[in-house]
Amino acid sequence: MITREQVKTGIDLVEERYLEELYSLIQDFQQLSQPVVKVGKMSLWEKLRTVHIQAPADFSINHEAYLNGEKTFD
Predict the structure, then answer these.
(1) 7: number of Cβ within 10 Å
(2) CB 71 within 8 A of CB 62
(3) How far apart are CA 36 and CA 44, in angstroms?
(4) Residues contacting residue 62 through CB under 8 Å, at least 6 positions apart
(5) How many other C-beta atoms can be found within 10 angstroms of the C-beta atom of residue 57?
(6) What contacts 65, CB < 8 A, 6 or more positions away?
(7) Which of the two residues, 11 and 33, has the higher pLDDT score?
(8) 9-48 burial: b if 16+ Cβ within 10 Å, else e
(9) Nearest of 53, 52, 56 to residue 70 by alpha carbon
(10) What per-residue confidence (pLDDT) applies to 36?
(11) How far apart are CA 5 and CA 8, in angstroms?
């Protein structure tokens, strides 16, 4: 198991030119541990992720045929 002291020692050994990137990674990890607070409406992407389509297996390939009536849903 890695301890905080080992992490701190490892950081001390990182070359100066990589410190900005390392700090960015540390900030990313800090954000992972913070709960996400939703405010307001769902974004379009969040809404699209909730869409479920019931369609034939070939629907993605033949969607135009279904739309113009060449094929029908059974």
Answers:
(1) 11
(2) yes
(3) 17
(4) 71
(5) 7
(6) 71
(7) 11
(8) eeeeeeeeeeeeeeeeeeeeeeeeeeeeeeeeeeeeeeee
(9) 56
(10) 66
(11) 5
Could you tell me if 20 and 12 are in contact, meaning their C-beta atoms sit under 8 angstroms apart? no
Q: CA-to-CA distance for 19 and 40, rounded, in angstroms? A: 36
* 14: confidence class by pLDDT, cuts 50, 70, 90: very high
How far apart are the C-alpha atoms of 61 and 49, rounded to whole Å? Answer: 21
Residue 51 — very low, low, confident or very high, per pLDDT cuts 50/70/90? confident
Report the alpha-carbon distance of residue 63 to residue 72 in Å, rounded. Answer: 10
Contact (CB, 8 A) for 5 and 13: no
**pLDDT(41) > 80:** yes
